[in-house]
């Protein structure tokens, strides 16, 4: 997989979550994703950026335009150095939350993208990578 | 502090969300609306989200909370104008907004609220306290 372009944004405050959404929208528009796909990507970005902020204590979002063969896509990487997730499988279950939310951030975002990867270990932070192909 | 304006029209409160809300702004709106329902004895709340490009789980929860609190304070809530792409995404996300009534546009939303109020008044008339 080829990374054509990329950009890294801080996710350290609530305003950064708004900026992350806007930036993902901009890139999705540039790649000419359909309106529904744009909305799915931006919504997933909003959920995951909020997780990075609230559960990870802040981190970064990297936006990448990726290409494989004839396909282009948008890949988003959310990374933090927070406490990590004890049981990633449980964290991905609908309705599971440790923060008083609806427990849909991770599981819901997974449904909004084509590829989803969660790498986390206790004390070693969390990285969530999502890709949506055109 | 930044706030979403709440308009009062007769017995109703109207809110049009036109900015990309950060989470605290959404929570402030939730508190402001609840406080205003109680202060103005409003019987209906209409929330226009036609300008919103996404509704994520946080905003979804805010809408459900507003509807729930309004209900407890004896007011009906209707959320109007959701864009089709937003609706599709919301359902896929796993949120079907239980307890939140929706209408396609402001006109239909208003008609729903008025019907509610009419039904309630009729019920009061038939069963005087």
**Order of helical and strand elements of chain A:** EHHEEHHEE
**What would you say the CATH architecture of chain B is?**
2-Layer Sandwich
Per CATH, which architecture of chain A? 2-Layer Sandwich
Shape of chain B: globular
Q: Strand arrangement, largest sheet of chain B?
A: 1-2-3-4-5
Summarize the structure.
With 134 residues, chain A is an alpha+beta fold. In chain A, 37% of the residues lie in helices and 33% in strands.
Describe the secondary-structure layout.
The complex is a heterodimer of chains A (134) and B (129).
Chain A: E1 2-11, H1 14-30, H2 35-54, E2 59-68, E3 71-80, H3 88-91, H4 105-112, E4 115-120, E5 126-133
Antiparallel strand pairs in A: 1-2, 2-3, 3-5, 4-5
Helix pairs in contact in A: 1-2, 2-4
Chain B: E1 6-9, E2 12-16, H1 23-40, E3 44-48, H2 57-72, E4 76-80, H3 84-93, E5 101-103, H4 106-126
Parallel strand pairs in B: 2-3, 3-4, 4-5
Antiparallel strand pairs in B: 1-2
Helix pairs in contact in B: 1-2
């Amino acid at each position: 997989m080829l990374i054509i372009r990329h950009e890294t944004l801080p996710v350290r405050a609530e305003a950064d979550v708004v900026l992350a959404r806007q930036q993902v929208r901009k890139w999705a528009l540039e790649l000419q994703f359909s309106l529904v796909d744009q909305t799915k990507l931006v919504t997933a970005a909003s959920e995951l950026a909020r997780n990075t902020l609230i559960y990870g204590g802040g981190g970064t979002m990297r936006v990448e335009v990726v290409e494989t063969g004839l396909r282009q896509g948008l890949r988003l990487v959310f990374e933090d150095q927070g406490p990590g997730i004890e049981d990633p499988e449980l964290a991905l279950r609908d309705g599971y939350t440790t923060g008083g939310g609806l427990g849909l951030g991770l599981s819901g975002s997974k449904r909004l993208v084509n590829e989803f990867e969660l790498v986390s270990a206790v004390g070693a932070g969390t990285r969530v990578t999502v890709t949506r192909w055109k | 502090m930044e706030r979403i304006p709440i308009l009062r029209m007769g017995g109703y409160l109207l809110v049009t969300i036109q900015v990309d809300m950060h989470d605290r702004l959404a929570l402030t709106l939730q508190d402001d609306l609840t406080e205003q329902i109680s202060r103005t004895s409003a019987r209906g709340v209409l929330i226009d989200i036609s300008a919103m490009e996404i509704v994520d789980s946080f905003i979804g929860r805010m809408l459900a909370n507003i509807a729930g609190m309004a209900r407890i304070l004896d007011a009906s809530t209707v959320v109007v104008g959701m864009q089709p792409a937003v609706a599709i995404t919301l359902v896929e996300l796993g949120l079907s907004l239980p307890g939140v009534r929706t209408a396609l546009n402001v006109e239909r939303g208003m008609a729903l609220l008025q019907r509610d109020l009419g039904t309630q008044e009729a019920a009061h008339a038939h069963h005087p306290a």
